[in-house]
């Protein structure tokens, strides 16, 4: 006879992924109450089963999800503040490939890009760049980063610009 351990009981109203799926914190915190001991064998097996299923469902064994690569366009207002280019949610992980910045504001734009974390701390990746009206800047050297819900790309500009970002999705919600 199968008896449900604490791990399944703590997550029994959750699905593997999607809006009803557990967050990383829920998976981590539920597992924190399970001690490595013979008497907890059932709970440890449940923990391993759910974490493996969640990994394969959301992260596709570390491979990109076919058909989920995309190019997004974000209009950045010239408000002299950092604006997210893409904001992953939940378990989403994106690998950026390249981006372009196009200035059609009517005057020269000064822009820069960087990372922002969940606490709104910013790390600039380039010094401010000047971009003439009608010009496009291309950056192909961003493919060594991974973006998630706690670390994402932001762009700062003093004029209205458009940013296109090509990404590969490595993990779903």
Please tell me about this protein's structure.
- The chain is α+β, with helices and mostly antiparallel strands.
- Helix content is 20%, strand content 34%.
- The chain contains three helices and nine strands, in the order H-H-H-E-E-E-E-E-E-E-E-E.
- It has helices spanning 6-11, 24-32, 41-59; strands spanning 70-76, 82-84, 93-103, 109-117, 122-124, 129-131, 136-139, 151-157, 161-171.
- Strands 2, 4, 5, 6 and 8 form a five-stranded antiparallel sheet that branches. Strands 1-9-3-7 form a four-stranded antiparallel sheet, with no helix packed on it.
- A hairpin with a 4-residue loop joins strand 4 (109-117) and strand 5 (122-124).
- The longest helix has 19 residues, at 41-59.
Q: For the record, give the distance between the C-alpha atoms at the N and C termini, rounded to a whole number.
A: 34 Å
How many E-type strands? Answer: 9
Query: What is the global morphology?
Result: elongated
Helix content: 10-25%
Biggest beta sheet summary? 5 strands, antiparallel
